[in-house]
Amino acid sequence: TYLTVATIVGAMCSSLGASFYLKYGKYNMILVMNVFILVGTGLCMVEIMPVIAAGRLIIGIAAGAFSVMCP
After folding, report:
1. For 50-60, what is the mean pLDDT?
2. What letters, b where the CB count within 10 A reaches 16 and e where it falls short, cover 31-64?
3. Could you give the count of Cα atoms lying within 13 Å of 69 in the half-sphere of its Cβ?
4. Which of the listed residues 21, 39, 64, 67 has the most CB atoms within 10 Å of its CB?
5. Measured distance CA(60)–CA(56) in Å, rounded
């Protein structure tokens, strides 16, 4: 439900804006998005629903950026 929506919204927003950050290089941005995945996964381990939603949003941001940077 709203956890899934948080992931999808994050992916949608970051896939639209990820091309602006490609000037730093694909490899560097993939490393940054890996850090986003780690932070989002850490937040999802907390058992408070708004924190889990924030973690899923961060994971969605990384997933959307990966879809632009790693085709």
Report:
1. 96
2. eebeebeeebeebbeeeeeeebbbbbbbbbbbbb
3. 26
4. 64
5. 6
Question: Tokens standing for 38?
Answer: 């780690």
Residue type, 23: K
The Cα–Cα gap between 59 and 63 comes to 6
pLDDT score, position 18: 87
pLDDT at 21: 85
Q: Which two tokens stand for residue 36?
A: 């986003």
pTM over 0.85: yes
pLDDT band (50, 70, 90) for residue 9: very high
Long-range contacts formed by 41-45: CB under 8 A, 24+ apart: none
